[in-house]
Structures
1.
Amino acid sequence: MGYISNMLRLTFLLSLFCLFTAIHAQVICDPSGNIMIYSNYEGGNLNIDVDADIPDLKIGISTYEFTNVTISGAFVDNVTEVVFAGFNAPSISGVDPAIVTEYAAAIGDVAITSILGDLVIAGAPIVNCMVGAEGCGETADGGGNSSPQIVQFFLSYWDDDDAFYAHYTDYDAFPPCDFLISEGGNCCFSDPITDPNPIYVEPAGYDFFGIDSALLCTTDTTLDISFYPVVWGLPVWSTGATGYSIDVDEPGVYYFTVGDYCHYGSNLLTDTLIIEPCSTVLDTSICAGATFTLPDGTVVTDAGTYEVVLTAADGSDSLVVIELTTIAPIAVTVDENICEGSTYVFPDGSTTLDAGSYIFTFTAASGCDSIVTYNISLTDTAFGSLDATFCPGSSYTFPDGSTTTDAGVYDINLTSVAGCDSLLTVTLTLSDTTEVLVAGLICSGETYTLEDGTIVSEPGVYEALVFPPDEPCVTRFITTLEVVDTVFAFETASFCPGAAFDLPDGTTTTDPGVYTFNYTSAAGCDSLLTLTLTLTDTVEVAVSAVICEGDSYTLEDGTVVTAAGEYEVLVFPPDVACITRYITALAVEAPVEITIDTPLTICVEVPSIPLNADPPGGVFSGPGVSGATFIPANAGVGGPHVITYSYTSPAGCISSATTTFTVTENYAAASADVNIIIGESVVLNVFTEGTPVWSPGESLSCTECFNPVATPSSTTTYIVTSIDEGGCVVTDNVTVFVNTDPDLDYFIPNSFTPNGDGVNDFFTAYGTSIEIIEQFIVYDRWGAIVFERDMVEPGTFLAGWDGRKNGELLQPGVYAYTLQLRFFGNFLRTASGNVTLMR
């Protein structure tokens, strides 16, 4: 189980004489208890004398090496159950075998791991962790378990009606050690509180923190895992610190790695805790029909306000209010027209040649569905014809700008207003007469001169022939002449006595009567207006007005109103002798209902996100806003960032609405760079909440996993890309440096003489380049393991093989060995061979 600590060496010397040392006062043991526990590491011969009359006595034994247990005494019949929990199977005699239960990994019976976790690694020495070898301390420095953990296991194994009597622990039981039940033990605990040390259980790992996240509601807090001591090296934190606790003063993702308690191979324990800012109100949204997981794990689907009480990093309660909104699918209809025979390309890349309705579901900027219906219509090719004549010797200009001097039938390709093909067939013939149509317009009383000089003044159709001097044909001008008569209009109006009336020509009058005005019509002809003015005692004025909701309107008599409707007021001007009746039609414009598209997830690495709102035409403002776009990097990670949209209606009424954006950032922390020797492999690690993808993948055991095994033949930098549930992307890398020709200095002898003369009594590996012997196994000629130890310091002879198996000297001969060596510089090499045991 690793190298022997100073404490274990001291315990080993004391155990040679089976000394009884009361490390803890026994006054806290239950003198009326019925559970007696013995534990050690190296095994030996354990003789238990039941000299006390304890009813229903139960004995628990926990060792790593083979132990020969003999139970006897005057009250041996009081023993109702004996349970062994260790690695190598023991030999237990003196009691009925029916009351003996053995849990030992060496015989394949690992039911004891139901307390510690499932055994899923074939051959892993997990059960041997249930041993005690260092005394009554609360920790397990040097190997095995602490006394409280041993006691707790047996107390949890038996019924609540059973009580703890005492616990005796030592390094071994050599030579045979005799124990009297009446003397109790050297470790007594009234209420053991520490859990069994964590054990690497692949792939679930071990949950140290018990929670996934916590809030930082004070200036700093401490992450402490010291209540789970791990003996093989200190935890290494993501901050670079080592030890069982660290102080944090800002939010972030914190994790650690540490060798598992049983130090099996290169397995690592780890756990991650996200320290979040102490927020009170969080605004977020989900797509309609989707689910949202609250911080306490509750899953909800409806919009609303949810209150969740969390435990802050300092242990205090923190109330988090989640304002959850749902985003309905966006329905959009697009009408498109294409020319017959052409192809329409949809946004997803698909195409069509046919008219019809096509429905697509896209993902909007909010991450929710956007249902777009495309109504495709076809425009056929337009066909037309034109008959025209022109004079011999002249040219004819077609609609497309081309010309010809020859008669014939011509197909002219044109583009219609819709942008489609239009085919015009022009039939040209030569003629000695060219017709020209002319539209003429004159006012009544004027004259019109035809092309041949004839003067006319009456409406009608006139034909005149003109013989151009340079052309061999006659031009016939057919003129349709229209004569516009003078327009006569009559209007009446009234005004108050003593007042003035504004006439249409801009002048004013105070007298009633008939007034005539001359105008020019749109055709340029005379227009005569006759206005009849009369006096009246009441003048009506119609007024139309619009105000914004919440504003007020002042009528002509000074009355202030706020509601829509028709209002009639009478005004008595002081200088006129009549009443003015104002009839005001007042409309009140309600605030416009504004809808802002809110993305469900915003990743900080996205360059920009278009901002959309209904109705369009308004102005966006807020952190990260630039015009009609949102730039996540400018707003910064976190939030919520309040985005405001202001809209001004045609009537000048201003409406506004707000939404919140939260910018998220994925994280990925790959393991540190490592050195290996060519041909060796190394496990890479990445800590991320997203899905990792490694590249290049040629020398990896897997590419979409958290812990790929890398076996590169040359120095390689592996890039890991993580994509989280929101689609946010982040990368990190780790370089594996491959030494193709390492200079490793080590020596393994081929023989040793364990005869007790102090010279060459132990077999081990030596060398200044060796950092640690990770695994040390010796086999006999039949392949059976006679010695096994992990994490052995090189050159430490007491930690090497002394030629024994289970405490007994083996016969001289040749034995095989396998050593897993780790050299300084983090190089690994497996050394194997034969060694001769000599006497």
2.
Amino acid sequence: MLCVRLILLTSFLIPLINCQTIYELLNSFRFLNEGSISKSDIYEYQYEYVMYTEPENVTRERFAWVEEIARPYLYQRDSTKPLQCDSSPLLSATDLPGADFLSIIPSSADPSLCHTLCCNYMSCAAWSYAASSPVDFNDCKKEQPCCYLKTYVPKSLDNPNIISAIMNRTFPYNHPPTGLRSAVPLGGITTGSIELRGDGTFHEWTVESQSPASGAKYGVVGDALLAIRLKNLQTNETDTRLIRTHPHHDLQGIDTIRYHGSYPVSKLELIDYTLIANMDLYAYSILKPGDLNRSMTPAIIFSLNIHNPNDYPISIDFMYNAPLSVQIDQIRLSKNILQQIASDTYIQCISLCDQNSLCASWNWQNMNNQSTCILYSDIGNNVHLNGHVSGIRGQWTYDKSGPLVLDRPGHMPSNGQYVLWPFLSSDQTITATVDNNINNILSNFSAYGGWYQQTEIKGTGANGAVSISTILQPGEKKTLSILFAWYFPHHNWLDLPLDNYYSLLFNNVTTVGQSIGIDKDDNQLKLILKDILTLHNVYFNSSLPNYLVDSLINSASHMRSAMYFSNGDWRQWEAYDCNDVDSVHNDHQRHLPYILYFPETEKNKMYTWAKYQQADGMIQETFTVGCMGDTVPYDQHGGRNMGDVTTIFILETLELYRWTNDFNFLKDMYSHVVAGIQWQLSVSTEFGLPEHLECTYDIPNMSQYPTTTFNSFMHLAALRACMELALIMNDTNTYNQCYEPFIRANKQIDQLLWYKDTTDTGYFLAYTGGAGEKAIFTDALYGQVLAFTYGLGPLYNISIMKKHLESEVRLADTPYGLRMLTGREPLTNPQDNSIWMGASQDWSVLNLWFNMDPDSALIQSEKGLNLVRQTLNDQWNVHGLYAADGYGIGGKPWVTSHYGFHMVLWHLPFALSGQYTDLAKGILLFSPKLRSPFILPVLIPNIFGTISSTPLLNGQSTYTFTLTIGKLSLNTLAINNAKYPSTVNLIAGQSIQWSG
């Protein structure tokens, strides 16, 4: 018997939020990661072997942000351990062939230089020296001396022309705390972002429309800084601090900063027993699922929570300085020189450019042994170059009651506006200043808590700063907030001008601030915090394990590299270091938070993929081709023949239709689906399985083989989706065209790809053909992952698929995750023996659907994600591939930074809840894998909530469905086959309850 109850939460939930103070709302944010950075810590970069990754400093324009072979990676030095690096004894007439990651011509024919070079690279385990290289090899040239640096020690061979050595070295380095290698990217969706790291420094600055299609990011902006000044109002003693652990100015820093991140929020706890107040700094941007325009606000808010624990009153001043008129270690690439003027300091370049009405930008660099200001009539793209400084023409304005604005007029990407704008209330005061010398700014702030003599500003200056001040009585708690916003409407793709979409939402940077009510009160600030908290609580208040909650919330920061143009195009790089755009297969790995938070972005891409479909029906791989090289012109579409592109287009058509109930979208896509099926069948004629197609796992070159299990399961999933779509469209002919090949493909997989290695065990072969090896591939069943999430059910015999998953662990497990390809190459070959971040997540997804105990099923997922979260402490820069053991860098980043491969983890909450969504039919079903009691998230595009279960004494359960965001109408709702007895019509804040 069913008992039904409607619970209205709206009436008390919103007032509860509204009656909370900003301090309380900020304090209610939760975090599942932390890193403590202390002023005594020593941090150093060490060079390590990679295939390719993104560098911190970018030295080329219009080119992938990529660094190959070796990259610097930040470590914490353990000062209690010795640093040793020697290579005695030398092994004369001995070669160590193989394992080379670098081959370098030494500055002279001296083998000891190989030792020095090897010590410079943390990954170097041995070296060989040839006085005369026998052949050209990497960077070495025939008949010239060469140092061959090696990541592991290969087997030695006699060679009279080679000297070698094995390194004897210590590694007094630990992974640094969370928040130093990477941090939450702050800034509106598609508006660029900035990271505030755990030591108080600002990194990864892309708000001036920087990208691989234009100029370089600012790797670190040293003089962007926050500071506080505390005053004991009884004794008038003051204490001024930079919010830094390692300040590079005269002011003292903070003893320890404890960093936490839950996208889009960073929290820095200021821990210092000498401070007379308790303080937490929050930095955050706007994120509101279902409201893309609101989420595209180009701004960061810094909010300082202060508690006065003393029995005397205190005052506090809070400041932010931004060196926006100079870019240190950056150079502008232009040939349009107006003047070259000798100058001992780069500061002079600012005024020289301001005095020349034709000057648009400048560089300060060495010309003929003389420091020189070079003025340009245009603004070239910027790139990193040590010792150089650049700047852009601009003017600061301020009056006592308003914001501090830097205006850079013009039509290039770096033309636009910045604003520094404190949130002012009746018990607070604000000041502002502009100065070429940051030490003047800091000394006046330390002396007076602001710059009260400057009531109006109009002019130039390297730095702009604002402050806000208040008084706290004993025991009082307050919040001081400063808005940092920008407005850079122009975006260049090579020479093609494109405007950012957010330029249609705002007229200038002042309207950005006004859109969040900064000129009125703090109610909009409360709404911003409430929107983020409401989303976070969907995950935090659930029964999901902590590692997964943390990963779900923070993986959405991958949106940092998305672009949205005023012509209506949504675009995103595969990665900054692999500069193709929206490759279908890579996009689908990361697409679930996009389709859930902002579904219009996925439909936007689907229409473009359909637009570029080939005449033979193949969906092209990418909007803009490329990787690791020059960026090609906008929408120069193309790519490879792949097994996970056209198939994914078909699957995503079904997914979007079922999850958004958009029949017009389906009608628009259906002819492209039918054409795609024709192509899919045309490349599967010989075996009934896809033949010689590439896939997202492209490094091992498996397209050389007749067919692969990965592509075959993608084929099965697409054929099943085709059948569902054909039924919806009443298309019997297409249904039959997909049904019969589906049956044949199942049989062919059985005959060609299933392999029993013992009586009781077996697995799907990675591929057919080869040299007789029986290799296993650990994401072979990805097509089945997609089929389950999109409601297509099992594609193949479940017991056989379970055996394959058991063999993945038996044959391919590592301490870091599942090895990609095992059995083809020795473990010293990184091409096969690396950890691709999707396999471990998909293993866990499938075992949940196969009803394995959840704790056991999640082992691989947790291991893979915790490598990044808790070992490397680098979860806002998840790489696509990590190294396995065998070639010297096990568990370290190997290929491609800021990547979305791990985001297949978003299939996990669907597997845990067993969610089946078909809004076109008004059906929402759950088959949870957790025992009652539980709370699990409900995830539908623009609609979020929870389901919960409480066991009853009669063996039944009470089920509650709570809607948190959006509105929902259903014909059928059921949990564990217990059906809600009527239709459902809910808005955010409402719940229904029943038992069964």
3.
Amino acid sequence: MFQELNRGSLSPWCVCPPFSLPPPPLPPSSPPPSLLLLPPPSSLLPPPSSPSSPSSLPPPLLQPSSSLPPPSPPPSSLLPLPSSLPPPSSPSPSPLLPPPSLLPSSLLLLPLRSNSPLCVWTSRGCTDVLCCILFILFLFGYFAVGLLAWSQGDPRKVIYPTDSRGQFCGQAGTPMEKKPLLFYFNILKCICVETCPKEHLTLLTAKLSLDRKKQDYYRSYCKEGTNFTKMVSAPDILSQGLCPAMLIPSQAFTHRCLPALGTLKGVVVVGNETSLADNAGDQVNATQLLDAAKKSNLVVEARQVAMRIFEDYTVSWYWILLGLVIAMVVSFIFIVLLRFLAGVMIWVMIILVILVIGYGIFHCYWEFASLKGVAGADVTIKDLGLQTDFSIYLQIRQTWLAFMIILAIVEVVIILLLIFLRKRILIAIALIKEASRAVGHVMSSLFYPLLTFCLLAMVIAYWAVTAVFLSTSNEQVYKVFNISAGEFTRNSCVPESFSPNNFSAGTLDTECRFAFYGGETLYHKYLIVLQFYNLFLFFWCANFVTALGQVTLAGAFASYYWAFKKPEHIPAYPIFASLGRALRFHTGSLAFGSLILSLVQIVRVLLEYLDHKLKGAQNRCAKFILSCMKCCFWCLEKFIKFINRNAYIMIAIYGKSFCPSAKDAFFLLMRNVIRVAVLDKVTDFLLFLGKLLIVGIVGICSFFFFSGRIKAVEETAPSLNYYWVPILTLVVGSYLIAHGFFSVYAMCVDTLFLCFCEYPRRAQLRQTVPTSDVSVNDLSFCCTLY
């Protein structure tokens, strides 16, 4: 019967446990009462407790029923229980009443006001409706922007390189189909070519050469239709941008021809040559291009590293997937063990974290000592420079010394924190025990992060696709180019119908050339605004999904906390019930809170955008002011996230709108500021140690497996270019998995902590509390210490 009422249109619970009786029907002539006094049946009164039996709550949280003053005669607004109601032992009780065993043992005051925080069966109303409507309108606008971008954008501009005339290199069905590579004359001029140059050759040498093959070879890298015999001199060819000044041995990288720069015995070389001849015949030493060579060589070598990493993923992906499954199983087992052995598991976790880091220190010292006397092991990282083969760094002593120092500092910090917070850790363990019971009763909460992950993935994918289409929706803009002046005019033109007579008074000194990507329509003028709108809605939707997950988990765990008898009085499907309440009644409040956070985030993006644009022109004062503003908004974002998280908990409990919930949460936390600063944060620290333990176990096991240190599985381990690739992937992946499981725990701890802070006021108002439960004892123990 109780579960049937829970599934009704009314709110399953508000803030007090679901044991309150609905008001009985009143005579038509009676005025609407404000309170209803229900004297408990004598058969339901508990036997008097012995003086030696301890109370389930320390004062002042619970006042024994014997200490309550005798009830005064009810005023006219207080009506006795109608005699028409069946007695508790009646075989057919009223369908509106819960089982008699749920009645409290003391007098029960039922406020009938709809805005009372103690009323259970009051229907929840939609909160922050205006913000809900605004959010829906912005979503429709977001979809409209996406459709507009998809109709105007061309992602081929990202896939294929584009030459100076706006043609896509290598695109099927175009004249450039057989020319997939982009070759640069200079930073502003480029054409599509079939292959990259393989030898060094200057324009002057090719023009004066009698070898026809050399001329044809050089002309293949010039603009189509270029004829060396008709051109008077090489400077005329260069001034008109028909050919490059020289060809340099190059190699393809992302479909672009880049100089094949390298080193040979410490000397910079281009191809196999250490010097180059320019058009004047002067020899240019390749070492003069050292800075440019380093940058270009880094790009080329980065491609090689990327290819090797891709190869490592192709041969180790199934081992990585198995490692992530193991991380998920370990996290799940850890959560289950916390359910039954919370105190033991916390201390075991602390000891294991210290031991794991201690082993890391010992291993680093062992590697450091074993490399003593090895040739080349005393080279410093600074002398070694940046190397694409990261295994080289593991062959020098300084690397292991740095690792050892870092782990030693972490170990000392953790031990000092444990020493100074040892009493607080005992208190935090009590809170974690209660969170373990709550998670145990609401096991479906462990899988809710999967829904949040899927929704966030959809939001990110929609934003990324829309951003790509918006950035590629610019059109090719052609301008009239003055050949003699060597610059573009302001006049636009169409290549197919261009006539020089229309612009140069009958001369042939102009031509229609591709100038840039852009557009002169209203859509193209406001592209940057649409990009910011896309980014703003991305923040809003992502924060809304996060808020939905927080209020859903908070509602489920709060229903556990305020349940009189666990697990009988917990809703059958607490996660689904809480999710339904959040979407049905509090979409506007969630949109309001996420809107405030999104506005701060978009301001931070604007500040970064201004910093990037004004970096070259700003003075020290402007740079200081901008840095201060970025720091202030970063702090403001953290503060708003903290307020929003607790406001969502209050929304899940009371069903109020966002602003009253945020205000109540803020003042409630301020009244318990010591508990917030110590107890809650110590609990977060212990949960972080749990994540660190899981990551450490998975990381150490993957290191021994992929590095071939385990002889039993040495032949099973895949052959890799960089064994740190799967190790790093597993470390990051296992942390994300552990964070997903422990984020449920963190939300449970925050919810129970906020309910616990609200508990004394609730007990004083109702003069009754839930039946004796271990949770009450544990949390009351925490209260007595402050």
